[in-house]
Design goal:
Elements lengths: L9 H5 L8 E6 L3 H11 L9 E6 L2 H9 L4 E7 L7 H12 L6 E5 L9 H6 L4
Parallel strand pairs: 1-2, 1-3, 3-4
Length: 128
């Protein structure tokens, strides 16, 4: 056995698999610029040979309506402060408790200093 390192062609590993469905990402934020930057930064990103497909909501109320329909979101990028100071946290609670979706990953984002949730809230709602 050799101690030589063998590298595979990364392009082969990350190439989009034919017929692979894109990861479904829900972006919930009341600032249109945040949606634009998110798309710009994540454009062309692939994971496990799958690209990303975005659904955009501009309020927690709009997100509740989208989440009420059958969906396969892998990730929700969620603003904390929207219609109210805690609209994002209330939506996270709704997703986990009312809808019962324990699989989707939720990442909280906020541009408001001092509005980060307490550690207990993060643990209770399995927020990333």
């Amino acid at each position: 056995m050799s101690d030589d390192l063998v590298f595979t062609d990364e392009k082969l590993e990350t190439a989009m698999r034919p017929g692979a469905l894109a990861w479904q990402i829900l972006v919930v934020d009341d600032e249109p610029a945040v949606h634009d930057v998110t798309k710009l930064v994540m454009a062309g990103f692939e994971m496990d040979g799958r690209g990303l497909e975005f659904t955009h909501c501009y309020s927690a109320k709009e997100a509740r309506a989208v989440l009420a329909a059958p969906n396969d979101f892998a990730l929700i990028l969620l603003d904390v402060v929207m219609e109210t100071e805690h609209a994002g946290l209330e939506l996270a609670r709704h997703i986990r408790e009312d809808i019962g979706n324990l699989n989707v990953r939720i990442v909280l984002r906020t541009g408001q200093p001092g509005q980060a949730p307490e550690e207990q809230v993060i643990k209770n709602y399995d927020i990333n």
